[in-house]
């Protein structure tokens, strides 16, 4: 089941500020099928996956030094640790929005099981994976690249996305999703990811306390805002590619969501654009990579940044990652706390709900570094019509 979007949103033509080289959504009813078990062995990759020269990857990008935030003492209530952790988080979020967290309290066995089930799913025959096929305009389900949405600059990856809700009486939501879409054999699969998402939701609320402290608002403000979150879990699988210098696992983009908590395997491939160059964030199995998304950038009134990032692939080893995208409950209005708005710091972004931005990115605009800017301009234009 995809996250419900608003139904009254008017149709949108491609925004005026959309990059000129942005490829359009496909509407010809024909789409290339990305079968990783076949394509991973081909020396001549399809043209749809070849990226322009100015966007081709630098596989050996220098490492980005990101803060390592120890959550152990903070989560246990140590006030000195809380101050230090919030300082590190604040500095990172003003510069590029990325940091690592360790001693996070998430069970290592659960993380290992979650990675193992990524292999279980993506090694299935294509026809089996397509039981959970994602429909155009939805945010959840199985997707073999973006072949159904776009006709060029396709990412070299497969994904499986599903909704997590922290609302009461929804403790079996993910288990039911996999039972309904994939059958009884996936009961344990659903249980593992139900437990994993609950752990991610708990972790994200703790991080929201840090973000509130670092911004000078109450520790509880953002925690309460996201307490009943309606989030997205995504399993990413990047098969080997015989020409990794021509394609990308994920193209350059900023996450439109609020907060991303990513766990990488040991292969590596995540890159962030900082100080006008691409830099890598090396794998650390004991840590989660956390980054700010566009929705939280709006909640912070632009003080904190969502940053351009991408994923590269290699010719030898599959790469997999677990991404939890924290999102507000659908009826929550995204508006910054009053402490962050004054005459010297006026409002930058208008009020909106998360489903509005979600539908914008799923149906009308391919997420990039200008997503929030273009979405804001569209909202302003709509208010005058």
Identify the notable features of this structure and list them briefly.
single chain, about 375 residues, alpha+beta, Jelly Rolls, eight-stranded mixed β-sheet, four-stranded antiparallel β-sheet, 11 helices, 14 strands, disordered N terminus, metal ion binding, metal-binding
Structural account:
Residues 228-328 form the Fe2OG dioxygenase domain. It catalyses: gibberellin A12 + 2 2-oxoglutarate + 3 O2 + H(+) = gibberellin A9 + 2 succinate + 3 CO2 + 2 H2O. GO terms for molecular function: gibberellin 20-oxidase activity; metal ion binding. This is Gibberellin 20-oxidase. The chain has 385 residues and is α+β, with helices and mostly antiparallel strands. The chain has 11 helices and 14 strands. It has helices at residues 36-39, 72-75, 79-95, 108-122, 126-129, 173-182, 187-215, 221-225, 294-299, 354-364, 371-383, and strands at residues 68-70, 98-102, 141-144, 158-165, 230-238, 250-253, 259-264, 270-274, 277-280, 288-292, 309-311, 319-326, 333-334, 352-353. An 8-stranded mixed β-sheet has the order 1-2-10-7-12-5-4-3. A 4-stranded antiparallel β-sheet has the order 6-11-8-9, with no helix packed on it. Strand 8 (270-274) and strand 9 (277-280) form a beta hairpin. The longest helix is centred in the middle third of the chain and has 29 residues, at 187-215. Mean pLDDT is 88; it is low at 1-29.
